[in-house]
Design a protein that fits this description.
By secondary structure, this protein is mostly helical. The protein has 10 helices and 3 strands, in the order H-H-H-H-H-E-H-H-H-E-H-E-H. The model has no long low-confidence stretch (mean pLDDT 84).
Length: 245
């Protein structure tokens, strides 16, 4: 919005200046047109990022990546530690948008939490988890349940016996230093998510961003059906994935 308003202001100033010169009738009309076009070009170039790359530089970079993963010991992406998934994807790849879909109560959130836990604990990969449905405490309770096999409902309700608390502290100790960052803002918008994601990538080096779940996000427009809303959110999330790599 700031950039658009800046361009608008520059257009107004440019048009005012060209208008004055045109009335004076002292300049060649084609010089005025060229000057006008030059001003527009400079204004647009000042706010647009140059995001083109040469084929040669991309080619050389890909060769280096192939060398790093040629022995099969390293994944080209972020591994999930689930062998069947990693063999299929070679780890989650940069700039990808992955949709984890399923019917209600099939374990989508639990699966997403595993996708967050394994890279963070095993490979120290920073992960951001945006939970729109559950509180941050409920998310961490599920993590504790996965690591200890204690029933999650008893963890949420704080119904553990003394020896179970000792077991919890011992088996889930890795959570104390796990680079997982949870945001439980309800109905978060794409703009707010993007702002927080930028901060997490810059300050914490986050490489995976999980949103649970997509339909609960809010949009700037009011859509008459869920399909259009989900399409818009998916498109925005894909753009976000590409921007932050």
């Amino acid at each position: 919005l700031l950039q658009e308003n800046f361009i608008r202001r520059q257009i107004v100033e440019s048009c005012t200046e060209i208008r004055s010169k045109s009335f004076l009738n002292e300049n060649d009309v084609f010089d005025l047109i060229e000057e006008h076009s030059k001003i527009y070009g400079e204004v647009i170039n000042s706010v647009l990022l140059k995001n083109y790359n040469s084929v040669g530089s991309i080619h050389e970079n890909l060769i280096k990546q192939h060398i790093l993963t040629s022995d099969g010991a390293n994944y080209s992406g972020v591994p999930t530690e689930l062998k069947l998934v990693d063999n299929l994807t070679n780890g989650w790849q940069k700039s990808d948008l992955i949709i984890l879909a399923g019917r209600p109560a099939m374990g989508k959130t639990s699966c997403a939490i595993v996708f967050a836990l394994n890279p963070a604990i095993t490979h120290n990969v920073p992960v951001a988890f945006f939970s729109l449905e559950m509180s941050s405490e409920q998310v961490v309770s599920r993590m504790q349940s996965i690591l200890t096999e204690i029933d999650v409902s008893r963890l949420v309700k704080k119904q553990l016996k003394g020896y179970e608390i000792v077991e919890l502290e011992k088996n889930a100790k890795v959570l104390s230093e796990a680079p997982i960052y949870i945001d439980d803002t309800p109905s978060i918008s794409i703009l707010e998510l993007k702002s927080k994601a930028r901060q997490l990538v810059r300050e914490q080096g986050v490489r995976i961003l999980i949103v649970d779940y997509l339909q609960l996000m809010s949009t700037s427009k009011n859509y008459d059906n869920m399909v259009n809303q989900v399409t818009e959110i998916s498109r925005s999330l894909k753009a976000l994935a590409k921007e932050f790599d």
